[in-house]
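Ops channel
N.P.: pipeline sanity check, posting one input/output pair.
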């Protein structure tokens, strides 16, 4: 008789609000650790992204204000992205469709978002749903027992209510899980974004507009305490971005070129595919980590 399989020695869990967030913020990190020996990657997605804006005109009827079928469609897109980045164990928080994309309101300046005045009865951001969401995530944490848990910073990166809620329930669930785990919060440093934008600004034929001040969220350089080199994961990241075709457009200049890749959401703002993904790790030792597991609880 054989015993139960031994869990991998390193276990990474990521909590994201909507399909595509895993790729946009952490696709390289997922791909790098998914390919590493003795390492497992678990992805928890909190909603189906039902309120997203659809880029391809032929799929516009999927949107919430029309057929309201986008959430189901994005399940397939997410599966394709995970296959490109994987192997990844994926779960929807509380089961498929338990909580719905809350949508967002514009906060009046730059990229900042706010909570809509009216929320769907199943919206992730509803105050009364918080305890059940923490319970659902704590159950996953108890099963997976990750040493590192990744999600957004306290402001969700740019204020989206679902990103904020993902942060809040992740912090609460880690505290409730009863075992130590390192928290790492996503972010892009101002200098890294500036360098990436300067590079793509020189590309001929760029089909997206370059951002102006406050179009894209960043964090102060000194807030970055982990920087993960994901250069070798570029092909997997591009494939995952392309899998989210309702939400993301991907462009690269025709050869000869320097390998640059540019992507944009429905707002048409150019964003460079950077060769490092950055995090704020509150318990990190002085300096900048190049491995999220370095110094994490055993």
């Amino acid at each position: 008789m054989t015993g139960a399989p031994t869990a991998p020695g390193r276990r990474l869990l990521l909590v994201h609000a909507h399909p595509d967030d895993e790729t946009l913020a952490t696709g390289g990190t997922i791909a790098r650790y998914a390919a590493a020996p003795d390492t497992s990657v678990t992805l928890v997605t909190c909603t189906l992204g039902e309120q997203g804006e659809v880029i391809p005109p032929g799929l516009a009827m999927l949107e919430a204000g029309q057929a309201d079928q986008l959430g189901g469609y994005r399940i397939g897109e997410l599966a394709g992205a995970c296959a490109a980045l994987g192997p990844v164990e994926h779960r929807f928080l509380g089961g498929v469709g338990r909580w719905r994309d809350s949508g967002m309101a514009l906060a009046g300046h730059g990229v900042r978002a706010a909570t809509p005045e009216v929320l769907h009865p199943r919206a992730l951001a509803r105050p009364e749903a918080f305890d059940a969401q923490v319970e659902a995530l704590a159950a996953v944490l108890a099963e997976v027992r990750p040493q590192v848990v990744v999600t957004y910073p306290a402001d969700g990166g740019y204020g989206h209510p679902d990103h904020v809620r993902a942060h809040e329930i992740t912090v609460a669930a880690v505290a409730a899980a009863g075992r130590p785990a390192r928290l790492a919060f996503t972010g892009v440093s101002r200098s890294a974004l500036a360098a990436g934008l300067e590079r793509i600004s020189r590309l001929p034929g760029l089909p997206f507009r370059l951002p102006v001040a406050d179009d894209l969220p960043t964090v102060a350089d000194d807030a970055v305490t982990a920087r993960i080199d994901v250069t070798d994961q570029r092909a997997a990241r591009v494939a995952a971005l392309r899998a989210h075709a309702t939400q993301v457009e991907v462009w690269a200049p025709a050869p000869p070129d320097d390998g640059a890749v540019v992507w944009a959401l429905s707002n048409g703002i150019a964003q460079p595919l950077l060769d490092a993904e950055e995090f704020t790790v509150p318990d990190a030792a002085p300096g900048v980590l190049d491995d999220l597991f370095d110094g994490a609880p055993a």
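N.P.: looks fine end to end. DSSP finds six helices and twelve strands in the chain.
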